[in-house]
Design goal:
The chain is an alpha/beta fold and about 200 residues long. It contains nine helices and six strands; from the N terminus they run H-H-H-E-E-H-H-E-H-E-E-H-E-H-H. It is globular.
Length: about 200
């Protein structure tokens, strides 16, 4: 089994310099560490997990998202008892296969729809934010709300990812309400130090 944290670190409860650097850089989280430890303990009960290669585990709003290497999704889905145990502990189980590239992750959640485009903003504080535009006609085909997509995909990618349908841009604006993009830009302009 390959995990985001060294097995020795999990057994000794101390991170090696490499894993500590991954934690400090945000490549892994405390949840990755705790979940990897739990998963290692489950390997005895579910021997087929020995072939699993887990890149990340993310818990968000009553769901757990497992990011696994290619061909590992079928391996996990074949372990019905294990999946049920995960559901009981963490809620809905979402398995994402492959490296977490933004378009790949987005498409796994909006399938069979395809995004119109992705725009990236580089904010003054050095962070990156992406806006994914969706076809208005796909509104009924996408099972997740914009807010669910934002939370899940942002957690997986480790950056802010907003979702918007094309027709939302064309709607006449209510003068009293600001959209999420306008609010974000206002917040950022207030954070930039004046010269």
């Amino acid at each position: 089994m390959k995990l985001p944290v060294c097995k020795f670190d999990l057994e000794s409860d101390m991170l090696c310099p490499n894993c500590q650097a991954k934690l400090d850089n945000g490549e892994i989280t405390q949840f990755d560490i705790g979940f990897s430890k739990w998963l290692l303990e489950r390997e005895k009960e579910y021997p087929n997990l020995n072939d699993l290669s887990l890149s990340r585990a993310v818990q968000i709003d009553g769901r757990i998202v497992l990011i696994v290497k290619k061909k590992n999704k079928a391996l996990l889905e074949s372990q019905a008892d294990f999946i049920n145990e995960l559901k009981n502990l963490y809620g809905d189980v979402i398995i994402v296969e492959g490296s977490p590239k933004l378009r790949t992750v987005v498409r796994s959640f909006i399938h069979p729809a395809i995004e119109v485009g992705v725009n990236s903003l580089y904010l003054p504080d050095g962070t990156k934010e992406s806006i994914v535009m969706l076809h208005s006609k796909d509104r009924e085909r996408i099972t997740y709300s914009n807010e669910d997509l934002r939370k899940i995909v942002s957690a997986i990618m480790g950056q802010s990812v907003l979702f918007e349908y094309q027709d939302d841009r064309n709607k006449p604006k209510d003068e009293t309400a600001e959209d999420e993009f306008d609010l974000k830009m206002k917040e950022l302009s207030e954070r930039v130090p004046r010269r």
